[in-house]
Amino acid sequence: MMRIVTANLNGIRSAAAKGFFDWIGQQQADAVGVQEVKAQPGQISGAYDRIGDMPGHFHCAQKPGYSGVGLYLRQEPSDVITGLGDAGFDAEGRWVEARYDRPGRRLSLVSCYFPSGSSGEERQQAKFRFLDLMYPKLMALRAEREFILVGDVNIAHQAIDLKNWRSNQKNSGFLPEERAWMTQLLTEGGLVDVYRRLHPDTTDTCYTWWSNRGQAYANNVGWRLDYQIATPALAAQARRAAIYKDQKFSDHAPLCIDYELAL
Description:
Blueprint: E1 2-8, H1 12-17, H2 20-24, E2 31-35, H3 41-44, E3 50-51, E4 54-59, E5 69-73, E6 79-82, H4 87-90, E7 95-102, E8 105-113, H5 121-144, E9 146-152, H6 176-186, E10 192-193, H7 194-198, E11 209-210, E12 222-223, E13 226-230, H8 232-235, E14 238-243, E15 255-259
Parallel strand pairs: 1-2, 8-9
Antiparallel strand pairs: 1-15, 2-5, 3-4, 4-5, 6-7, 7-8, 9-13, 10-13, 11-12, 14-15
C-alpha cells in the first residue's frame, strides 16, 4: 500500500504549532502534499523541510506569508518540477511535481493550490484564468504519463459537496462555471475524483474546509475543496479514503488515500 495525504495547512508554522507534524509523523505516509505553506525557503529549511526520513520539495510564493506548496516524498523522484510556466501564477507558488520515470513507466505526483476567488472579482477572474491554464496542462500531462494530483482545488463540484449549496450558487467555489470546469475534467478529460470513486454518495462526512466565521466548524457547515485527482489506472488502485477531523491543524482537514501502488 502507498498512502498519500494532502493538507492545506493555512500556514506551515501555524499548523506545526497545532500538532500537524506530530500527527503526520505517525501516519506512515509515503507522500504528503501540502498547500498554503505561507513561508519562504529560509523559514522552512531546517524546521519543516522533512517529515522523518521524507525530504520535502517546495514551490514558495515570492510574496512573504502567501500561498506556496510542498511535497514530502519517501522515495526519491527522478526529477522535481516547480511552476506551471506562467510567470504570474508561478510567482504565487502553486505547483510542485515529482516525477518517477523508469523503463515502461512514467508517473507523477503533484501538489497544487488553485486560487480562491472569494476576495473579489479581480481574484475570481484570476481563478478563471488559472482554470483555463490548468485544463490543457493536465491533458498534456495525461497524454505523456500517469499522475495523481493532490491539493486544494477551491471548487465544490456537486451539491453533495457542501452543506448550503442552494445559498452558495453565486459564490466563488460553487459557481456554475467552476463546477462545469470540474465536470469537463472528469468526463471529457478522463480524470478521476478518487474520493468520489470510493465514496460516491457521502454528504456531511465529506467536507474538508470550514469557514472561520460563526460556528461553521462546530455545526459542520463545510465544503469539500481538497481532492486527489488521478488518471484512471491509478485511481483504480485506490482502496481506502479518510478525512481526518480528530484534531484541527487548519481551516482544512487532511485527506488520506491508500493506493495499491508502488512507485
